[in-house]
Write a structure and sequence with these properties.
Helices cover about 65% and strands about 5% of the residues. With about 725 residues, it is mostly helical. It has a two-stranded antiparallel sheet. A two-stranded antiparallel ribbon has the order 2-7. Strands 3-6 form a two-stranded antiparallel ribbon. InterPro entries: HD/PDEase_dom (IPR003607), HD_domain (IPR006674), HDIG_dom (IPR006675), Metal-dep_PHydrolase_7TM_extra (IPR011624), Metal-dep_PHydrolase_7TM_intra (IPR011621), PgpH_phosphodiesterase (IPR052722). Keywords: Membrane, Transmembrane, Transmembrane helix.
């Protein structure tokens, strides 16, 4: 029944994979659902809020944005355009007026005719002729006014009364210069500011007030004020283009009013106003139907994450090994960290990111030690993506990328350091490297944020990363024995312990079968090199090779490498009896290893390192006397090698024994022997169950050739002193 159950589990490995993935998927979905699910409320307007409600999403409040835009447009006043040509025209009129005043004030030069009295006295006989003289004659006031009217035109002339024109014309030169300067300055300032129709009265009054404080006589000031008001006209007119441009600019300056995820919409006990009710409706907290969408999205997300693990399970892990203990171990290593992350995400600590303390690196280390590096990398990606949702502060739609990046790099750093476990202190190295990686990631986050942090805060955050690395190391050291012993999972650290030369079984081989001990060391060296050449587990091949012939200790002297100085005991046995003893060493080895609670993987090597090959020497010897002897009685019970490592050990075991038996090994002989053994095993179907490729076999052949030729290379024959 027991064997039958094992066969059923082995034949349906894909079912085990699917069941494991389904359990992981369900657990992950249940843990993440509260981080994406949005609770809806049945709330009436003007009721009291029973709890504080936060926005589950980030969304624009379009109504509020439109309200602010309307206010911004309404705040934009009419825009006017100042016509500087009007300013120039009016200032030119002032200049014309004062030039005209200069003209009319100039005296008129006229001819004055009169008789010459002296000539009449002296020349009584001559005719009386009049004398012509030029004289300057001042114009009369009416003449001046008439001339001004003709020079300036009717409109300008009507700006002042007759009395005011007389005042202007009577000003002294200094007064005229002062009046001109003052009037031009006042008008120019008013025109430059722009004068609209509505502003014209105010501007005229301002002009009058300014002129009032001049040092000129009052009558002149009054006249200038009248003239200035007459010349002060509208020069700023409404501009549609400028007004529209200003309104458009005002619209663009209004920022969209966003409701941020996590923002408090209403607090407990607060009255639900119309605005609050509309906000709740906008973010979907009143819509029962929208709750299904996040769940559907979460389902897709979970499927993607589980697919990452499924890829690793399918290609890198035998989940049926030891009645599914590997599957159980992976379930623990997946669900327990997720539960711990969920618990830590629920703890609210102000200004502290608790995910920095999550000892997730311990999971990557355990998977790397118990399984394979590729699977550990896939798990690192799985946990980092899950962390982005788990640590989103329960804000649906939000992702905590910092948590995801931190957890990803924390795991990758440990995986790469554990790429090759060669000593017991490797875990300590991993803790140190993990501390360094965590500190660098945390410091990068703090510097990228471009915020002002105190040294106390920085040291606290970095300290969290260091504490996480230490906790991860402690967790690995504490839990690794559980997986190794209770779940019977073989790790690199356990292999290193088994490789200790002081191990009781290794001492047993050394003392009881020293030739087998030396043979095992040679096979270990060859197997490790060959496995590393094809990407298999070299450390496992080395350690398993140490114990693969432990069964020979049951009858050590029946194996040729241990027959030192004694007669071969097979000379006294029949071929069938000798074959029985030789064939039994694989099962004897499995029995001894099982009694000493060795990992099943090493027990399998003891069983499989000869596969179902034929003990040809005794078979052909028996066939000489019994032609009808059954071949099956001279074949090893097997099974055939089931893994690449087991197949490599099988090849190396035969190759080492064959090369050692050569009297004068050369490179050509060694290469031919290696190829012959590999071809023989292939033709016998010994590699049918181990997934070795032809490329792998070529690499194995080349590696064994290089290693053995390095061991059995030709040496210089030193001269004999006696001959010399």
């Amino acid at each position: 029944m027991k064997m039958r159950l094992e066969r059923i589990i082995k034949s349906y490995q894909h079912i085990i994979i699917w069941v494991t993935l389904i359990f992981i998927g369900i657990g992950l979905f249940l843990l993440l659902v509260s981080n994406v699910y949005t609770e809806t409320f049945e709330i009436e307007r003007f009721s009291q809020a029973q709890e504080t409600i936060q926005s589950p999403i980030t969304i624009e409040d379009t109504k509020e944005t439109e309200r602010l835009q309307r206010e911004a447009v309404q705040a934009v006043g009419d825009r006017y355009e100042v016509l500087h040509s009007i300013t120039s025209e009016q200032l030119a009129l002032i200049e014309d007026i004062f030039e005209a005043i200069e003209v009319v004030n100039k005296p008129v030069i006229v001819e004055n005719e009169q008789p010459d009295d002296a000539d009449t006295t002296n020349n009584s006989d001559s005719e009386d002729e009049p004398t012509t003289k030029l004289a300057e004659v001042e114009r009369t006031i009416p003449e001046k006014l008439q001339l001004l009217k003709e020079m300036l035109g009717e409109d300008v002339y009507q700006s002042l009364s007759q009395e005011e024109w007389e005042i202007v014309m009577s000003m002294s030169t200094a007064q005229k210069n002062s009046s001109y300067t003052l009037l031009v300055s006042a008008l120019n300032e008013a025109f430059n500011e722009g004068i609209t129709r509505d502003e014209l009265p105010e501007k005229k009054q301002s002009l009058t007030d300014r002129l009032r404080y001049s040092m000129l006589p009052e009558d002149i000031v009054a006249t200038l004020s009248t003239l200035g008001q007459a010349l002060l006209v509208e020069n700023s007119f409404f501009s549609i283009e400028k007004t529209m441009t200003a309104e458009e600019q005002a619209l663009n300056n209004v920022e969209p009013q966003m409701i941020r995820a996590g923002e408090v919409i209403v607090r407990e006990g607060q009255t639900i106003s119309n605005d609050i009710y509309e906000t709740l409706s906008l973010v979907g907290l009143l819509d029962q139907g929208r709750n299904f969408y996040p769940l559907i999205g979460l389902g897709f997300f979970v499927v993607l994450l589980v697919s990452i693990l499924g890829y690793g399970f399918y290609f890198d892990v035998d989940l049926t090994r030891d009645r599914g203990k590997h599957a159980f171990a992976l379930l623990i290593l997946t669900l327990v960290p997720l539960i711990i992350m969920k618990f830590m995400s629920l703890i609210e600590v102000e200004a502290t990111s608790l995910y920095l303390l999550m000892p997730i690196a311990s999971v990557s280390m355990l998977i790397r030690l118990l399984f394979k590096e590729k699977l550990a990398i896939l798990y690192a990606l799985f946990f980092s993506l899950a962390a982005t949702v788990l640590f989103n502060q329960a804000i649906p739609g939000a992702l905590n990328l910092q948590a995801g990046v931190y957890i990803l790099f924390s795991q990758l750093g440990t995986i790469f350091v554990l790429r090759k476990v060669t000593e017991r202190f490797t875990i300590l190295k991993v803790v140190l490297v993990n501390s360094l990686v965590n500190s660098i990631v945390i410091l990068s986050f703090l510097l990228i944020a471009y915020e002002s942090y105190t040294w106390t805060f920085i040291m606290m955050q970095v300290g969290f990363g260091i504490i996480q690395a230490i906790i991860s190391g402690v967790v690995v050291v504490g839990t690794l024995p559980f997986f190794e012993s209770i779940l019977s999972i073989l790790s690199d650290t356990k292999l290193i312990r088994l490789a200790n030369p002081n191990h009781p079984l290794l001492k047993k081989i050394l003392t009881e079968a020293p030739g087998t001990y030396h043979h095992s060391l040679m096979v270990a060296n060859l197997s490790e090199a060959a496995c590393e050449a094809i990407g298999a587990n070299g450390l496992f091949a080395r350690v398993a090779s140490y114990f693969h012939d432990i069964g020979k200790t049951a009858h050590p002297h029946y194996f040729i490498e241990n027959q030192m100085g004694i007669q071969n005991p097979h000379d006294f046995l029949s071929p069938i009896q000798s074959a029985t003893i030789i064939l039994s060493h694989t099962l004897d080895g499995a029995r001894i290893l099982k009694a000493n609670k060795f990992p099943q993987e090493i027990i399998d090597v003891a069983k499989q390192h000869h596969g179902t090959t034929l003990v040809k020497y005794f078979y052909y010897q028996a066939k000489e006397s019994l032609p009808d002897v059954e071949e099956e009685k001279f074949r090893y019970p097997g099974p055939k090698p089931q893994t690449k490592e087991n197949a490599v050990i099988s090849i190396c075991d035969s190759v080492e024994a064959a090369v050692r038996s050569m009297k004068e090994p050369t490179k050509e002989k060694i290469d031919n022997l290696i190829q012959a053994i590999i071809n023989d095993r292939m033709q016998d179907g010994q590699f049918d169950d181990c997934h070795l490729t032809f490329l792998d076999l070529r690499k194995i052949s080349y590696t064994l050739s290089e290693t053995l030729n390095g061991i059995y290379h030709s040496r210089i024959e030193y001269p004999d002193e006696k001959k010399g």
